[in-house]
Design brief:
about 15% strand, 2 domains, Rossmann fold, 13 helices, alpha/beta, 6-stranded parallel beta sheet, single chain
């Protein structure tokens, strides 16, 4: 590492809620460890936040530590600030409001969840020194919503922890199979309904589908030419299924959240070098302009199956998409690069 890539201080302290899905922040944590930066990861119990944060900080030389609150542990930011008297770096990724309200519509009784998520987002941003977000579209949006904090938001793409997939770039996919894989939750923006409709109207028996989702409603469906995995799968099994596919599907809906978010599976697909078909959202249009992804009209099952059918018969385009998305990952989103970007940002602050 050159001098600018090294940490200005002794240690980076990552703090997360216990059992929180912190895979985004874990990517940078693992990347910093690989770079030789001294880091510690602590998890906080939901029912004893102040006590646990105080106990951890008591054993640290606060003056020589940089504190990072992991995504999605928004509620921890004020506690870390109060206990350390230092504004932490916050790996926001996306606001809590996006997941709870925009996606799940979980407003709660008398819209209490609506108000609660706004308050948590507000204080987590106010008490942070810098706030990392997942895309330039998310950055622009939050600069407008939280205009009084303009300048706090910094772009840091999500990427993946490459150790999950054996820490080596895959060769470019040249599979002659016509297996189409979807991986994701059953949230509105994912568009599982669009996928189900596309599978049912598909008339080609040579095109087969794999669905990896924890969605309970998929368990009772009998979809033609489709394998469904609803149980937890370890990373080696996920990678094996990925590599059996000729196309990976991204977000399939026209939900407004797709216009400022980039899902984890985009980076997984790019890392493995597999053609990616996704809805025509704003971030994906940008990638389509450099021929890294194939787009269809979001929410339109007929257009989705037409796009898939046309693509699997065009081996030259498949190879081009595979090369371009893999090259994009290597040059813009690899774990070492993102970890260095993370480090350079936090080095600006004491």
């Amino acid at each position: 590492m050159n001098a600018f890539d090294q940490i200005n201080g002794d240690e980076v302290i990552f703090i997360s809620l216990e059992n929180a899905p912190s895979s985004r922040t874990k990517t940078y944590f693992v990347g910093l460890v690989e770079l030789g930066v001294e880091c510690q990861w602590y998890e906080i119990r939901n029912k004893s936040i102040f006590r646990d944060v105080s106990r951890i900080v008591k054993n640290l030389n606060v003056a020589r530590c940089k504190f990072v609150v992991a995504s999605p542990s928004h509620v921890l930011v004020p506690y870390v600030f109060w206990v350390t008297r230092k504004m932490p770096i916050f790996d926001l990724g996306w606001p809590l409001f996006d997941g709870v309200i925009t996606s799940r519509k979980n407003h709660g009784i008398l819209k209490l969840n609506f108000l609660k998520t706004l308050v948590v987002d507000f204080f987590s941003i106010i008490f942070s020194k810098i706030v990392f977000v997942e895309s330039s579209y998310q950055q622009n949006r939050l600069n407008k919503v939280f205009f009084f904090c303009k300048g706090k938001f910094a772009l840091l793409p999500t990427g993946i922890n490459e150790l999950r997939f054996n820490n080596e770039f895959s060769e470019i996919r040249t599979s002659s199979s016509k297996v189409i894989l979807f991986r994701g939750g059953d949230l509105p923006e994912a568009g599982i309904d669009v996928l189900i409709s596309a599978i049912r109207i598909n008339t080609r028996p040579d095109i087969k589908f794999i669905i990896m989702s924890r969605s309970n409603r998929l368990k009772g469906l009998n979809l033609p030419n489709t394998q469904v995995f609803t149980d937890f799968l370890p990373d080696d099994e996920i990678k094996k299924l990925y590599l059996s596919a000729s196309i990976i599907l991204g977000q399939l809906s026209s939900h407004k959240r797709t216009n400022w978010t980039v899902p984890h599976k985009f980076y997984e697909t790019a890392y493995l070098g597999i053609p990616y078909v996704t809805s025509n959202s704003s971030p994906m249009i940008e990638f389509e302009s450099s021929k890294c992804v194939k787009l269809f009209k979001g929410g339109d099952a007929i257009d989705l199956i037409k796009t898939i059918s046309s693509l699997v018969d065009n081996s030259q385009e498949m190879k081009s998409l595979s090369y371009n998305i893999n090259n994009l990952y290597k040059t813009s989103f690899n774990q070492k690069l993102l970890s260095k970007v993370f480090l350079r940002y936090i080095n600006k602050y004491k």
